[in-house]
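I keep forgetting this: the sequence line spells out the residues, with the fold written below as integer tokens. I include a record here:
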Amino acid sequence: MADTRLKVILKCSECGNENYNATRNKKLHAEKMEVRKYCPKCKKETLHKEKK
């Protein structure tokens, strides 16, 4: 059985810092992941997008 979960790296959209590792189900969520998370470099909650 093929694994449907992908390992992804989340990158801050403001400073470009790679802060988080996550997984997502590619069958249920085909589009790239975007989440609001805390960025320690910016010291605030920012939008984090999935790295290529």
About this structure: Residues 19 and 34 are 13 Å apart (CA to CA). The chain has no helices and four strands.
